[in-house]
Each structure stands twice: as C-alpha cells, then as structure tokens.
Predict the 3D structure of the following.
Amino acid sequence: MTLEPLARPARLRPGARVAVVAPSGPVPPERLERGLDLLRGWDLDPVVAPHALDTHPELDHLAGADEDRARDLQEAWCDPSVDAVLCARGGYGAHRMVDLLDWSAIRAAGPKVFVGYSDITVLHEAFALRAGFSTLHGPMVATEVFLKDAATQQALRSTLFEPESVRTLGLEAAVALVPGTARGITYGGCASLLAADAGTPLARTSAEGGLLVVEDTGEEPYRLDGILTRLLRIGALEGISGVVCGSWENCGPYEGVRAVLADRLGGLGIPVVEELGFGHGPTALTVPLGVPAVLDAPADGGRCTLTSEVPALL
C-alpha cells in the first residue's frame, strides 16, 4: 500500500496548553525545569504529567511503571484543554507501553501536536499507523540540545507557531551521498527503533512511496550495518523514494558510518542525503512526519534540502 499524507494538527497559538510526558527514560528534574522555562518564554502554558518525574522501583532506566507512562500520554491526548503533547526525553521504554494505549480513544480525540525523537520513534510509527496522525520528529523538553542550541530552539518554535516559514530544512553541512531528487511521504526516526519495531503486531509492512527520515546514536558501524541489513532483508525499504539522513552521534568514526550508508543504501537507486541536521547531534531540526515532501540532492555539490509541500501544522 502506498503511503498517503496523514492528518495534521493545528498550529499553536500564544497561551496554548502543552502537556509534557515521559514515555521512556527517567527525566532529570533540573533539566526539565529549564526546558519548561523556555516554553513559558514562548508564551506557552506547560503542564507536567503526573508521572513524568517518576523512576521505576526496580528498573531505573524507565520513567516509572509502564501503565503510568501510558496513562499520562493517554490522558494528555484525550484532554480537550491540551493543545500539544511534548516528550521530556527519549532513552528506552516506549516499546513497553505503546500497546497499553487506547488507540481508538486517541483517534477519536483527533490529531494534536506531538514532538519527540530517539526512542519516541516507536510512538511516531504508532500515531501514523494506528491513528493516521502526522507528528514532529523534534527536540525534547529536557534534553541538552533543546536547552543549549539556538538553531534547535528556533526550528521548533517556528514549526509550532509559523510552520509555513520552515518548510525547507537542511544545514549547510548536508551533502548528497547519492544525488537526485525524490518526492514522498516522510516517515521514520531512529534506525535501531525502526528495526526493533519491524515484525511486531501492527508495525509497518510497506513503505511504498515513503521518504525515509533516519538517524541514530551509539551504534558502531557494524551494528548500523546489521540494523540496515535487517530493514532491507524484511523488505521494509522496498518502494521508498529517497533517504534523508540526520546525525549519527557516537556511532564511531564517521568514515566508517558513511561507508556503511553507501554500501547498504547506495544500491537502492534512490537519492540519499547525509547530515541534514536532525536527531542526536549538536543541532536537532524539527522534521514533520507524515507529510508530502521533496528531497533535493544536487549532483554538483549544491545545498541539499528537504522541503515539505505543505506546512507541518494547519
């Protein structure tokens, strides 16, 4: 089945109420408070979910019990007074709680702004496949890149309030690994999470017409090779129109990463762009998922860009 554009939520207005949830790992309180101050400075009204600062009693890599993390997200989404749901951080844990959510109730509540990356990839895929909603692959409230990087902050703020102003993305560092132009529906996230999600109930079985947005962190080149090989072997990349790569932070020497990307993706016969500027790197641009977009990777070394054909938000 060919990917189709997903339902987009409304943009935010000054005074909008935004819920901050922790679907994955535990959240440092001091970083969360700094992130909340930034949101308040944007004239937003952030509300911290009841269990966002929890830590699981036995598994300290989790922000509380699976049921509590799921309940926080569920209640925030279904609360008509909440205009957006922002994740505090990634880490690990979304796989454990995604099937505890009532997706029928989420669909009935309609689309809302949802922002996160890394482990949140599992939820991006679920919102796309189970609810039909577009989401934002973007920085999280209690992460250092959101707190420290001005470009990251501005990209998210502009996307939330003036999405038509940031339809074209791409840092100057972006280059064409395989040149060309491609059009498709954006989807994806963290490569290792896409591979881990594959084959699970209700997971994506086709990406025909998709424009893959992908990055990762902490994966040595041989592990990245295995991740991409798994996606290739199960047919998860069949029919995609292009690949947009973000950062590969702490994934070993970049020469080794680049060699793996060229080896595993170069034979697909589609454009591939490197280092567009999203993910775990020093800058985390906000990339809309579930929208039609054009990837431009000039052969002459010109600037590589990803341009959404519609604003990320209505």
